[in-house]
């Protein structure tokens, strides 16, 4: 289970991570990361811990499948939040194939997406491509 202080719950926080954060797509999921050291809702307060939220739509499967995917993703993110800067917002969006995927496949895609986001890829631009 993901501790309460590490859960992303507010609609505004989800929107901030998705709209202003960087994105890394994989076959089973898309990860949005908004790195930051301050919480816009608590000026002057101490730096909050990194928080994660999950989006699993009906395209992934029925309610049982969606909840299984969410539980797996929460478990995986619990161990990875310590590697993020304090105040970071992470949204993990499961894609339709995630319902049939195994735990190892989800682990591989999540790790690859986080490596790409934390490795400093030039804002999603692939190597060798010229800027537009």
UniProtKB/TrEMBL annotation:
List keywords of the entry alphabetically. Answer: Endonuclease, Hydrolase, Nuclease, RNA-binding, tRNA processing
What's the EC number here? 3.1.26.5
* GO MF annotation terms: ribonuclease P activity
Reactions performed catalytically: Endonucleolytic cleavage of RNA, removing 5'-extranucleotides from tRNA precursor
Q: Which PROSITE patterns match?
A: RIBONUCLEASE_P
Q: Which InterPro entries match?
A: Ribosomal_Su5_D2-typ_SF, Ribsml_uS5_D2-typ_fold_subgr, RNase_P, RNase_P_CS
The keyword RNA-binding is annotated on this UniProt entry: yes
Q: A single Pfam family, by name? A: Ribonuclease_P
What does the subunit comment say? Consists of a catalytic RNA component (M1 or rnpB) and a protein subunit.
- Could you tell me what this protein does? RNaseP catalyzes the removal of the 5'-leader sequence from pre-tRNA to produce the mature 5'-terminus. It can also cleave other RNA substrates such as 4.5S RNA. The protein component plays an auxiliary but essential role in vivo by binding to the 5'-leader sequence and broadening the substrate specificity of the ribozyme.
Q: What is stated as this protein's family in its record?
A: Belongs to the RnpA family.
Q: What is this protein called?
A: Ribonuclease P protein component
Q: Which organism is it from?
A: Streptomyces lycii
Q: Which gene encodes it?
A: rnpA
């Amino acid at each position: 289970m993901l501790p309460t202080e590490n859960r992303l719950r507010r609609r505004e926080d989800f929107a901030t991570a998705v709209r202003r954060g960087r994105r890394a797509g994989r076959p089973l999921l898309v990860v949005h990361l908004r790195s930051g050291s301050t919480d816009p809702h608590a000026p002057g307060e101490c730096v909050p811990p990194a928080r994660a939220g999950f989006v699993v739509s009906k395209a992934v499967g029925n309610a049982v499948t969606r909840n299984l995917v969410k539980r797996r993703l929460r478990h995986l993110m619990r161990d990875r939040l310590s590697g993020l800067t304090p105040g970071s917002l992470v949204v993990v969006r499961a894609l339709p194939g995630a319902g049939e995927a195994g735990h190892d496949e989800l682990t591989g895609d999540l790790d690859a997406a986080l490596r790409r986001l934390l490795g400093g890829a030039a804002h999603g631009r692939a190597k060798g491509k010229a800027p537009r």
